[in-house]
């Protein structure tokens, strides 16, 4: 029985469930699902293994709970792209929020990246049932903007892939980014990253740009 099936009823249970999920996010994002163990998560949470297993019966159950709990947050910026808004500003707001999420939620980004790299065994249904319909909807909006000349001609799906890959790079490859950048930027790569991605996508998407 998972935490979803048996909701915590006491403050202690709520605290322990939150501690387990927070510890699991650290462990899974740094070690990947296959490299993580229940013992590692229990130790990081400050709980005994039997105590952890009272809340979650397996590593898989913890992983599924994490992914499920993060899904709405992860998809929210794309949901926020509105067809009735200014096309360029709607897309740039999405780009900015995705970059902000890499800064604010690097562990979550790596959690999803590791899951996809392993064939998305716990995300396959989500990709088909939630992500694809949402991407199809927003791709149609982008295609309509492009066809109307409100943004430059662009392949909507590959535009979204480019946004994802560029913005999430700063979370998923954080160590490489900081190792390669000049020392003056390595401490905080995001101000220059924000300027770069804004200039790049604006130039690409501005009609006649």
Topology of this structure?
Elements: H1 11-31, H2 38-45, H3 49-55, H4 59-79, H5 87-104, H6 106-117, H7 124-147, H8 156-172, H9 174-180, H10 183-186, H11 190-205
Helix pairs in contact: 1-2, 1-4, 1-6, 5-8, 5-11, 6-8
Give a structural overview.
- It is a single chain.
- The protein is an all-alpha fold.
- The chain folds into 2 domains: about 45 residues, Orthogonal Bundle (Arc Repressor Mutant, subunit A); about 140 residues, Tetracycline Repressor, domain 2 (Orthogonal Bundle), CATH 1.10.357.
- It is about 75% helix and about 0% strand.
- α5 runs antiparallel to α11 and α6 packs across α8.
- The protein is globular.
- The protein starts with 10 loop residues before the first helix and ends with a helix.
Summarize the structure.
The protein has 209 residues and is mainly alpha-helical.
| Alpha carbon gyration radius | 20 Å
Query: Total helix count?
Result: 11
Oligomer: single chain
* Helix-strand makeup class: mainly alpha
Name of the level-1 CATH class of the largest domain: Mainly Alpha
Task: Specify the biggest β-sheet.
Answer: none
CATH hierarchy: architecture of the largest domain: Orthogonal Bundle
CATH superfamily of the largest domain: Tetracycline Repressor, domain 2
Q: Notable features of this structure?
A:
globular, mainly alpha, 0% strand, Arc Repressor Mutant, subunit A, Tetracycline Repressor, domain 2, 209 residues, disordered N terminus, 11 helices, 74% helix
């Amino acid at each position: 029985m998972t935490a979803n099936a048996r909701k915590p009823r006491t403050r202690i249970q709520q605290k322990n469930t939150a501690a387990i999920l927070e510890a699991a996010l650290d462990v899974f994002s740094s070690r990947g699902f296959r490299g993580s163990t229940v013992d590692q998560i229990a130790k990081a949470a400050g709980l005994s293994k039997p105590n952890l297993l009272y809340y979650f019966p397996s590593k898989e159950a913890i992983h599924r709970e994490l992914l499920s709990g993060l899904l709405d947050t992860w998809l929210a910026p794309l949901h926020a792209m509105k067809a009735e808004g200014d096309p360029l500003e709607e897309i740039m707001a999405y780009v900015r929020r995705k970059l902000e999420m890499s800064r604010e939620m690097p562990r979550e980004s790596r959690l999803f990246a590791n899951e996809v790299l392993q064939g998305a065994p716990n995300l396959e249904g989500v990709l088909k049932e939630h992500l694809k319909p949402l991407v199809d909807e927003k791709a149609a909006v982008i295609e309509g903007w492009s066809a109307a000349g409100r943004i430059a001609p662009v392949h909507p799906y590959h535009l979204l892939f480019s946004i994802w890959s560029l913005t999430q790079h700063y979370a998923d490859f954080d160590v490489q980014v900081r190792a390669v950048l000049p020392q003056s930027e390595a401490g905080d790569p995001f101000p220059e990253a924000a300027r770069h991605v804004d200039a790049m996508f604006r130039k690409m998407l501005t009609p006649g740009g």
